[in-house]
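Table S2 (continued). Query chain:
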Amino acid sequence: MTILENHYYFYILLLPLLLYFCRLADRRQKKPVEPTVWPLLGMLPEVFLNFHRAHDRITEVLNSCGGGTYMFRGPWFSDTDMLFTSDPANIHHVFSRNFSNYPKGPEFRKIFDILGDGIFGADFHLWEIHRKTTMALLTHAAFNARLQRTVWEKVETGLFPVLDRFSRHELDFDLQDVFHRFSFDNICKIVLDYDPCSLRVEMPHLPCEKAFSVVAEPLLYRHVIPQRIWKLLRWLNVGSERKLMECSEAFSEFIYPRIAAAAANVDGSVLGVFEDVYRETKMDSSTSRRDFLKDTALNLMFAGRDTTSTCLTWLFWLVAQNPTSERKILEEMEAELALEKKWRSFTAEESHKLVYLHAALCESLRLFPPVALEHKAPVQPDILPSGHRLPRNGKLIISFYSVGRNERVWGKDCLEFKPERWICPSGRIKHEPSYKFPAFNAGPRTCVGKDMAFLQMKMVAAAIIYNYHVRLVEGHPVSTRDSIILQAKHGLKVKVWKRNWKA
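Corresponding output:
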């Protein structure tokens, strides 16, 4: 406790100095330039001044440095120096060419301890077990049939009734919240074989569902606050660490009973498959079966909820601002699916034919990747293709958000929403390497649920765009949230009207 107290009081004493330098930095900040390194405080004043727009400020600095890489200097003795990059060559090097030198590592596991031994934080043998098992599940015909049926049923019994109510009463509502609930119900049904029915007309409050949105912000704070400080906050159970603790409790209270309920009938289910893996594989004896299944489920739920809901939120914001794209999506539906202007949902087979809609989703993911950044640290010292040196366990932050807004990568129109950039002259979707388009990560850790995510997003987006007019509520502020997951800070307030199709 004495050591923690000493560091705590050290930073308290620095507070007046921090405020003074923040005022100076605010006066100097006339245009996007590299942050000033202040005595004792490093670049910390820059963080305080721009935390409300952290991802955009990181992008400005990376784009202004020429090569897309710069070193962030933290306060003296804080151990928060970090190398930031959006350089595709560096991304390819770290995620593919020198993959073995960049495991998740102990620092990642400390920051993301809430994920436990799931696939996101696992390394080496445990990661291989998770990946192989998950890939085997996702490629199984029975699983895919169940996935398609689950999505279709949730559109029919959850999404349409909720949108109909808002349309009938001409109410403003948060479309992002609707997508969060839709994705949460879907992934719970798929992973836990349980539908919590969070997406229904009453829009009930479910602590676990809300915890997924809350947890992303404290995890970003852990990247910039010195470890000694956030550990002290955790010990005191205050601030962002208190929120994180409450989220962890909400996850446990929701998932553990589902594991117990599934214990009697696990054959063929996702939990059943992973329970077999736990029994048949030599797992770390410190991890109980119950905790292993809980961590596995939580990681899969994070992946299934956040990617789908975040991408759909930004897609509808972008399409609302670009009505030409909405018209092209509708024209493609009518041309490819021979529609009869009749109220309906869409099957997986029909969704596969919608190339322009797929391109629009890719463009949404390019501009707003669900996971905004990734933390890496080399096991051995390394030199990146950009020439920057990283010591052993040196902190490297890859900004996926900045990659999509880099002129050197995507051209001078990189900030424009142009689905056409994803369509080849042959009419097919253009493939882009993952180090240029890292929305689903890159290299061996590329998201194994990528196809599953696109399937869900296309079925949902097609159903909404075809059956409803969606318009933004005038004056509602829309900006990115300061968190690991790139959600809309104030949600996405919209109004919907049913199209005049036959019932």
